[in-house]
Specification:
Order of helices and strands of chain A: EEEEEEEHEEHHEEEHEHHEHEH
Structural class of chain A: alpha+beta
Number of helices of chain A: 8
Shape of chain A: globular
Low-confidence stretches of chain A: 30-37
Oligomer: homodimer
CATH superfamily of the largest domain in chain A: HIT-like
Distance between the termini of chain A: 50 Å
Radius of gyration of chain A: 20 Å
Strand order of the largest sheet of chain A: 3-4-7-9-8-13-14-12-11-10
Strand content of chain A: 15-25%
Number of strands of chain A: 15
Largest sheet of chain A: 10 strands, antiparallel
CATH class of the largest domain in chain A: Alpha Beta
CATH topology of the largest domain in chain A: HIT family, subunit A
Largest interface: A-B, 102 and 103 residues
Number of domains of chain A: 2
Chain lengths: 341, 341
């Protein structure tokens, strides 16, 4: 059982993982630094290797009349074989001296985006990307039905430098029993700005960026993609929905199709124009509505789901760790112009 | 001139650097990803290449009767040739629509720790490490005399994965006109805990960790090194001084010598037992006293300088970016036991 531990000074939580645990000697370079090497020639996410993963979750999209854990799927969902957190009853917060901790209860799933090892998200037909997004929605709904999972984080790590330990295209879903500190910060920031703007801060940014135009990468009826004004990373992008909603699960069918097209376009641009860099894709949404509507009664007004996508081209180093400042050598206006054309 | 820009929602600042600026095409893999490759066979930090850096700062330690910017030094301080921030008069905060920014005023210096390319900090004699620490103190004092530099961040990136663009052993000093968000969070966290503990939270952690013992890596009269209870990374270490003080500049001569020995011991341990990993070393100290004693009148009571050292063995990925949670596969108790023996 892993442990969730709270840092006393910062209030930040960490997962001390035992399922993924390594002996200290495992980090010596001879053993493959950080254990992120994958064995060559075998991939547990490929079609035909279904028995190498834990049994799939029924949300998996399959051809009619094909059996679970066998070929015939298009988007497959499985529990992570080495989960950071384990499912189970919610656990009380406990103390050890002055320190707080709790059992590492949560959910950790993998969404295998397609059966073909060589096809990245950007390469898939728009309808297939829509299916992946639809699977995210279904899993979020199912996990949030269990009230003690307060936050569901959907993310994608593409490439070793972006933290992917397997190269077969996949995304991950982690649900935590605690609302993470960065999510809280975003909520409190949005709450504070709502008072000044008298409207959702994200709606306001959406309007301002669209009228300024110089940081707009792409626009369509349902979404706009910006290089954020204070981008931390070269070619960082934010995908904002035009329609205000705190919850990704509330995205409608037609919007989902539009989002799929938007993603295909910007991920394709990264691949073709920036040289297929490793990247992270991060969904920002409000915490589980069963919890967030109690904890922040104004959550439906102030929060606005969005996506963050950034290639890994610079390193996070001592300065960033100490200060939370980032040094970005590409102005977002330059990045947007480059990505737009 | 670079720009400091504030992210509206999170309140985080970024440096949009122009001195270091790259054209978007520079990021294509053929050009050396992220430009972090160094030309082989030449090092501007080596003895004999002094003219390749900007003119040295007089804090440089040299043999008597040797000339500036010539061989004969032991610890050399130079302005960064590609500074993230530039010196100059303080600049007011300005707005561009709903966004805040200011000119990128600040300091960016490099401390070349020794003339020999092949000698890492851990390899130097204790007296030489003490000299490096003493140079840090002198530079912090000199920079803080200019009141508009509100925070001085001292850090070391060792190895390419830790963000070092040159492999010659060096540290960096960056001063910002804004107190960084992570520093503020630490101050507010310490302030809140002071109310409950009725003493400095760092002093309390120092005592609790020493009496628990299982996360202690090293102890001596002046310092203790712990694997923090909520370590984010395998083999993360915190170096706490026994004597309460918010300011690194207040460390006394005998304490500095003891700190040098402490660093030599733990950095040597990382090198020998963990396989010479890339690492970051980050100084946490109170902001410029001219500013912090006004902004936080209780700063002298509540804040306690310390060092943070962590090898880069795992990747920060989508989950960490979205949540601020970290997944650590090595419990700090295991790490401390391994580093202790």
């Amino acid at each position: 059982m892993s442990e969730l531990r709270k840092d006393l000074i910062s209030g930040r939580w960490v997962i001390i993982s035992t399922e993924r645990s390594k002996r200290p000697d495992d980090f010596r370079p001879a053993d493959g630094r950080a254990g992120t090497e994958e064995p060559r020639g075998f991939c547990p996410f490929c079609e035909g290797s279904e028995v190498k993963t834990p049994p799939e979750i029924p949300t998996t999209l399959r051809q009619p009349d094909t059996a679970s854990d066998a070929p015939g799927w298009t988007v497959r969902v499985v529990p992570n074989k080495f989960p950071a957190l384990n499912r189970g009853p919610s656990s009380p917060k406990m103390t050890r001296g002055i320190f707080s901790w709790t059992e590492g209860r949560g959910v950790h799933e993998v969404v295998i985006e397609n059966p073909d090892h060589g096809l990245e998200l950007a390469d898939l037909p728009v309808e297939h990307i829509r299916d992946v997004l639809s699977v995210f929605q279904q899993r979020i709904r199912a996990i949030e039905a269990e009230f003690h999972y307060r936050y569901v984080q959907v993310f994608k790590n593409k490439g070793r430098e972006a933290g992917a330990s397997l190269s077969h295209p996949h995304s991950q879903i982690v649900a935590t029993p605690i609302v993470p500190i960065r999510v809280k910060e975003e909520i409190y920031g949005a709450q504070r700005l709502f008072l000044g703007f008298r409207e959702c801060a994200f709606c306001r940014i959406f309007r301002e960026e669209n009228s300024a135009g110089q940081r707009v990468v792409l626009r369509n009826g349902h979404f706009a993609v910006f290089a954020p004004f204070a981008s931390r990373f070269p070619f960082e992008m934010a995908v904002f929905p035009a329609r205000h909603s705190p919850y990704f699960t509330e995205v409608r069918e037609d919007e989902l199709m539009s989002l799929a097209g938007t993603l295909k376009s910007i991920l394709g641009k990264l691949k073709d124009a920036v040289g297929d860099p490793p990247y992270n894709l991060v969904l920002h949404q409000a915490p589980n509505p069963f919890h967030s509507r109690q904890a922040w009664p104004d959550i439906d007004k102030i929060y606005h789901w969005h996506l963050e996508i950034f290639p890994i081209l610079t390193k996070v180093a001592g300065f960033e760790w100490g200060t939370g400042f980032y040094i970005n050598p590409v102005p977002p206006e330059t990045a947007a112009e480059f990505l737009r054309t």
